[in-house]
Specification:
A hairpin with a 6-residue loop joins strand 14 and strand 15 (247-251). A 7-stranded antiparallel sheet has the order 4-3-7-1-2-6-5. The chain is globular, with a radius of gyration of 18 Å. It is 18% helix and 33% strand. By secondary structure, the protein is of the alpha/beta class. Bound molecules: flavin-adenine dinucleotide and FE2/S2 (inorganic) cluster. FE2/S2 (inorganic) cluster binds next to loops.
Length: 281
């Protein structure tokens, strides 16, 4: 995976900020410098409003980039103060961003690639799945959400290859967690590489499944972030290492957010536990 970087502070113009389904928005910003550099799996930090409130920028993964128009898209869910303010920003307004940040996905030499997206984690996978198809790779996708309406960009994934769909309420596809169709699939098929993004419990379940099947897997992790550039240590997660404790803490923002599944220690022994996350505004 790519080396760490600290991004650049850039001014962007809001081109569009539209609601897709309740509480979920698609933001398009024009910022040619970012569009020319950002890669799938990387993220940006957005200062949702000018002034002091909220102080900290918020992290969002790249959904799509168009180098020709110099535009970058994210899809975000309104969960608190920052995202609520962001949802009220209008086309034509200026917004400050920091990016590109993080390492991004690495397709390497893999030929058959699986994609597992859960909820909002579906959006960051589209750009890398499209890249895989452009590079002539075979794509199979597993998408899960609470209801059919939240299966974001399902049609776009369907154009790229075979897809398996599940929902929590059974409104579209099987009523199941997304790990179920993946597990079934791996009993009869091989994948060279799997990329996944979604809630931590989903990623933990996937790590166990792919471990049992020996599938190389990259997981995009989320943690609350302070600086986004490796300075505050607010976003650390335990990563297996040859140390007396058996792990070291790494920063999701600058060492990740993409890590190999078999490196991640989802449970830390209580005595050595250190809480990641940042409680500032
Ligand atoms: C690398 C990265 C990429 C991300 N990409 C996206 C994306 O593409 N789309 C999207 O909708 N969200 C994404 N997130 C999560 C997003 O950053 C948070 O939802 C956002 O910062 C919340 O800000 P807020 O001020 O609205 O909420 P707050 O008021 O700060 O928090 C509201 C609730 O959301 C939880 N929360 C806040 N930050 C995070 C976080 N980083 N991870 C998990 N839970 C959090 C809090 O614990 C709290 O329960 C990403 C996070 C990271 C670290
Ligand atoms: S958010 Fe500050 S080190 Fe990662």
């Amino acid at each position: 995976m790519a080396k760490e970087n600290i991004g650049k502070v850039l001014g962007a113009e809001i081109v569009d900020n539209k609601i897709l389904v309740p509480y979920v928005y698609q933001l398009t910003i024009k910022v040619a410098k970012l569009a020319s550099e950002i890669k799938p799996g990387q993220f940006i930090m957005i200062k949702v409003a000018p002034g002091l409130e909220p102080t900290l920028r918020r992290p969002f993964s790249l959904h799509r980039v168009d180098k020709e128009t110099g535009t970058v898209q994210i899809i975000y869910q309104v969960v608190g103060k920052g995202t609520e303010i962001l949802s009220r920003r209008k086309p034509g307004e200026e917004i400050e961003i920091l990016g590109p940040l993080g390492n991004g996905f690495d397709l390497g030499e893999a030929e058959r690639i699986g994609f597992v997206g859960g909820g909002m984690g579906i959006a960051p996978l589209l750009a890398v799945a499209e890249q895989a198809v452009q590079e002539g790779k075979e794509v199979v996708s597993f998408l899960g959400a609470k209801t059919g309406d939240y299966l974001l960009v399902k049609k776009e994934f369907a154009r790229l290859g075979k897809i398996f769909i599940v929902t929590d309420d059974g409104s579209v596809g099987e009523k199941a967690l997304v790990s179920k169709p993946l597990e079934k699939y791996l009993k009869h098929h091989d994948l060279d590489l799997l990329l996944a993004c979604g809630p931590t419990p989903m990623l933990k379940a996937l790590a166990a499944i792919v471990g049992a099947h020996g599938v190389k897997t990259q997981l995009s992790l989320e943690q609350r972030m302070g600086c986004g550039i490796g300075a505050c240590l607010g976003c650390v997660v335990p990563i297996k290492a040859d140390t007396p404790e058996g792990f070291v803490y790494k920063r999701v923002c600058s060492d990740g957010p993409v890590f190999w599944a078999d490196e991640i220690l989802f449970e830390v022994p209580k005595a050595t536990e250190k809480q990641g996350g940042c409680s500032c505004g």
